[in-house]
Amino acid sequence: xxxxxxxxxxxxxxxxxxxxxxxxxxxxxxxxxxxxxxxxxxxxxxxxxxxxxxxxxxxxxxxxxxxxxxxxxxxxxxxxxxxxxxxxxxxxxxxxxxxxxxxxxxxxxxxxxxxxxxxxxxxxxxxxxxxxxxxxxxxxxxxxxxxxxxxxxxxxxxxxxxxxxxxxxxxxxxxxxxxxxxxxxxxxxxxxxxxxxxxxxxxxxxxxxxxxxxxxxxxxxxxxxxxxxxxxxxxxxxxxxxxxxxxxxxxxxxxxxxxxxxxxxxxxxxxxxxxxxxxxxxxxxxxxxxxxxxxxxxxxxxxxxxxxxxxxxxxxxxxxxxxxxxxxxxxxxxxxxxxxxxxxxxxxxxxxxxxxxxxxxxxxxxxxxxxxxxxxxxxxxxxxxxxxxxxxxxxxxxxxxxxxxxxxxxxxxxxxxxxxxxxxxxxxxxxxxxxxxxxxxxxxxxxxxxxxxxxxxxxxxxxxxxxxxxxxxxxxxxxxxxxxxxx
Length: 487
What we know:
The protein is globular, with a radius of gyration of 23 Å.
């Protein structure tokens, strides 16, 4: 069956795809010429700033108004700095500092970097209120657990990005912070009343709408009071009645990646998820990272078929395509942020409980930790910042307190971990060390109330970026103060 070219182009204008490699393949540039809305760049597309600028230039040569997006949250979720770790602290650290202008300036700096390499849409900031301490996917990506604090920083982040000429995309509506499962892997449920949602999850989204965010991303979460059995991405009650009608948002509604199981499994495949999201009121369909030409063509065909059989009214598709086109039109602004801004901000966030006296020449032990799909495998810890201090990296369940004490050779131990309290092996190792030997802990994940008995000092960085690691090393006296280089 032949697809009408005009309808095919209209469907393509709603798609945010991806491609492998450091150079766009011919099929990717061909699709841009044919009308594809744009692409998201991931770590596997990135070597350095110069290469990214060449890549975006290649895509812009195909069409000047192509949307070129990235997940650059700073902190633990970085794409531009995936090889080294971000030079900026993430949201948890910025929320802990509590300086709204600092948040604005950090996001303006991030936006300036993105603009300089040819990008125009940042799939950030994360504005979820992280009320679940063991949230496996948000955590340090959140400004905190207080809706008012998160709302203030969310608006500041949006303003900062857009002052740099980058469209902001606040996420994940209507709020992913109370979940204890990961929507990449399943469909999480937030089973609360609409009243609780209004008081807890929604204030940051009201704030970013007031700050004129150009885009808001949907969450693949189920809120039974609003969405029934479906994720919010497929819910007109969420996207049209609440976000458009009540909040008055007239920008672009972007889906979270439709390949995620929270969406694709709910719909019966990525192609069906694309159709359902458009029906619900979404505009720009983020397909995800595992994308090839065949998948894109199947999604296009599914959308076209849905229009032809009446499942998607033509005016709905036209409206979505029009909103997507507006995302590439954010104005250009010039800014020259201080090169050590992120490192200075990370230092301000560090919290030290107890005393570091006697830890001038420690033995550093880093506990291996898993990473989320959103974060990817990005370097973290103190190692890049240590000035000759010995460090050992180990799995907590493959060593013992006695072995580490012997390896330390009389030195006090600094134990560096992420979400140390969450796992029995890391928690038990830390507790045994604290009872047997002088121990300081550096926690680089989402903070909890857990503190092992006998620990001499507990250092919280509120994130594991390159900047957070340097800040911790400096607090411990192990790094050369003031070196803000990410090298």
